[in-house]
Amino acid sequence: MTVLLGAIADDFTGATDLCGMLVRNGMRAVQLIGVPRPDLELEEVDAVTIALKSRTAPVKEAVEDSLLALDWLQSRGVHQLFFKYCSTFDSTPKGNIGPVGDALADRLGASIVIACPAFPENGRTVYMGHLFVGDRLLSETHMAHHPLTPMTDSDLVRVLGRQTPHKVGLVAYPTVRRGPAFIRDRLTELRHEGCRWAIVDCLENEDLLAIGEAVADQRLVSGGSGIAMGLPANFRRKGLLPPREDAAALPSVTGPEVVLAGSCSAVTLAQIEAFRSERPARKLDPLALARGAELPEVIAWAREHMASGPVLIYASAPPEEVRRIQQELGRERASAIVEEAMAVFARELVAAGARRLVVAGGETSGAVVKALGIEGLAIGREIDPGVPATVTIGRGPRLALALKSGNFGRRDFFLRALATMP
Ligand code: ADP
Questions:
Q1: Is the CB of residue 315 below 6 angstroms from any atom belonging to ligand 1?
Q2: The pTM of the whole model exceeds 0.85
Q3: Spatial CA neighbour of 349 closest among 260, 254, 250, 251
Q4: What fold does the segment set 5-237 form as a domain?
Q5: CA–centroid distance, residue 406 to ligand 1 (Å)
Q6: Which residues contact residue 372 at a Cβ distance below 8 angstroms, ignoring those fewer than 6 apart?
Q7: Residue 164 beta carbon below 6 angstroms from any ligand 1 atom
Q8: Within the chain, which residue ranges are assigned CATH 3.40.50.10840?
Q9: Domain 257-420 = CATH 3.90.79.10
């Protein structure tokens, strides 16, 4: 099996995003969690995204992990490498976009690398090298106050310039507008001027497609998931990727169904209410969990009820209740206790036969994926925007999974997810 596109994403949800984009554009895509073991077997796929936690890791660690991921992808013969970061270019003057990109480019012998975080559908556009979120410059949005990666400069030529010893150039909008051949010529020109990097302007989906076509023969491409929109067509044009009407098809998974909710967002609380009116649901008491109580009893309850249909276990609570629990236990301890409990439920209930799981909450999903030792996910169709149905790959029993962060999904998400999952 040859992987056409190999991607390295600097965080987990970014990897899922990217896979969703590739699937929508006709590639079968899987997401691997962390650097995979050398002997991991994959069935037929067109694109593999390795999800790292390199966005805010120390530079050295981010570079090392990314190079290990690259080694793995190269061992599968990838044609092109994509380095995926956030559409708001989340980074600091130290990195990690510059240092990771440079390390990948050095290893691949790439002479010029585009950097384009644009995702017009989500309001991220780049004009004259400046990144906009909706109608604001990046530096005038909430991103200026981000706790880990405050983005106080919108000029990406300058921002990336601080992260790399190499020269950064610009492919400005008038050139992008004229199409792939002109973009390619400008990249060649920048290369001759000694640039390693090229920020590329982009205002519309059409531009993403033109930029995608222009970089068909680049070994390394970098950007947000938007820029991946134009890449599958390159492989089709080269005859490497057959038309796939079934890119989102996943093997079906049968077995008992469990929903685990640790998100306390208003959206999740409403989803819990909707589920409770249809199926058995059990609320956890973090104070009881802290005393070492509740776990065996809730596991027995879930085992009994999941035989006849989906069940929900949730810790989610409205803000005043969460505050009270955090006052009693401390914020970090409260989160850790609930996440650990969710990890135990996931492990125990899968051991008891559960095969179809919905998890609500970003951190909660991370805890569950880790507890189950999941190595990767094949990505299927979207249940709601930003939340695809997935099926696990690698070691362990095959599971159907939907992982949603707090604010995602419509009110009937839990039952609809179970109905949509393969
Ligand atoms: P979201 O995606 O909505 O941010 P997360 O799962 O990332 O959801 O974060 C929610 C956090 O709140 C988790 O660490 C979870 O363990 C914790 N938590 C869940 N229920 C409670 C509760 N009742 N009291 C205190 N913390 C809670």
A1: yes
A2: yes
A3: 260
A4: Rossmann fold (3.40.50)
A5: 9
A6: 346, 347, 350, 392, 396, 399
A7: no
A8: 5-237
A9: no
